[in-house]
Amino acid sequence: MSHTAHIRSHRKPRRSASKIAMRAGVAGGVLSTLAVAGASGAANAAEPVTQTLELPTLTADVATQVAQSADATQQAAANYQLQAERDAAAAKAAKQAKSDLADAKQKAEAKKKAAQEAARKEAAARASRNSERTTLSAKATTSTSTSTSTSTATGSAAAVVAFVKAQIGKAYVSGATGPSAYDCSGLVQTAFKQVGISLPRVSQDQSTAGTQVSLSNLQPGDILYWGGAGSAYHVAVYVGDGMFVGAQNPSSGVGEHPLSYDPPTGAVRVL
Fold first, then answer.
1. Cis bond leading into 179, ω under 30°?
2. What's the rounded Cα separation, in Å, for the pair 197 and 195?
3. FRET pair for 253, CA 20 to 30 Å: which of 68, 107, 177, 210?
4. Strand pairing partners for 254?
5. Quick check: 117 and 124 in contact, CB under 8 A?
6. What phi and psi values does residue 246 have, to the nearest 5 degrees?
7. Domain-located, residue 11
8. What residue ranges in the chain does DSSP mark as E strands?
């Protein structure tokens, strides 16, 4: 036996053919993979890269907030529209009120002018009546002084004068003919009935019942009238000495007054 037979050899053991083949196959596969990857990389380098972004899905809370925001926006729009309509209505109402105020002012001014004109006419008419009464008063004064000789009543005239004086103090009632109350023509009619003379019932007719006489030539028993002959509105009886007795009005009743108290327009004589 050799003296080296028990010494272990230091050479690497030979690889088996199968292992060598396996390693060669693995290496080839790796190279193939690298080749494909390289080719793919080259292709990807030549083409643009498209990246897809996925939007986040709305959660229930976010959806509710969006809905509430939409409702709030819609409500705000409705409020703006309502306010605009109210503003338009207010503007229209203000315009109408302004127009109505102008009309009212115009009508008030017209009424004021009409009232002023009526007052002016009334004042002119009053002044005219006062002037006429002043003239008549002067005539009555003259007639009093000129009729002194005929101021004493006699006969039927005395009876008429006595009757009307006996009624002084009684009430004035429209349409009354005695014995407790009279109106102006009722007193005159009843007085002349005492002496058998029938006179018309109303003042207008009594003012034309006899002969027209001048106020400057009055005698007791003459009928005095106020207003025009045939359109008189008041009558009384002249009792002499510049005095007359008549049923004047509800406040004074039957009374005796001087001619200057209310100067008459004319007179008629029936006795």
1. yes
2. 6
3. 210
4. 247
5. no
6. -155, 160
7. no
8. 171-172, 181-182, 211-213, 223-226, 234-240, 243-249, 253-258, 266-269
CB-facing half-sphere around the CA of 179: CA atoms within 13 A: 4
**And the tokens for 217?**
């030539």
Cβ-based neighbours of 21, under 8 Å, separated by 6 or more: none
Write out the residue range of the structural domain in which residue 151 sits.
132-269
Digit-coded pLDDT (tens) for 149-207: 345 778 999 999 999 999 999 999 999 999 999 999 999 999 999 999 999 999 999 99
Locate 221 and state its tokens: 């028993």
The answer to whether residue 196 sits within a structural domain is: yes
Give the Cα separation of 21 and 205 in Å (integer).
169
Q: Which residue has the tokens 């006969």?
A: 155
Is 81 a domain residue? no
Orientation angle between helical segments 155-166 and 184-193, nearest 10 degrees = 140
239, 151 contact by CB (below 8 A): no
Assign 77 a pLDDT band (cuts: 50, 70, 90).
confident
- Cα dihedral sign for 180, 182, 186, 189? positive
Q: Give residue 188's pLDDT.
A: 98
What type of residue is 134? T
Q: What is the token pair recorded at 36?
A: 């494909």
Number of domains the chain contains: 1
CATH number for the domain spanning 231: value is: 3.90.1720.10
pLDDT band at 146 (very low <50, low <70, confident <90, very high): very low
Query: What's the rounded Cα separation, in Å, for the pair 147 and 119?
Result: 40
Q: Please check whether residue 151 lies inside any domain of the structure.
A: yes
Q: Report the candidate in 153, 178, 156, 158 with the shortest Cα–Cα distance to residue 167.
A: 178
Amino acid, res. 17:
A
| Cα separation, 264 vs 179, whole angstroms | 26
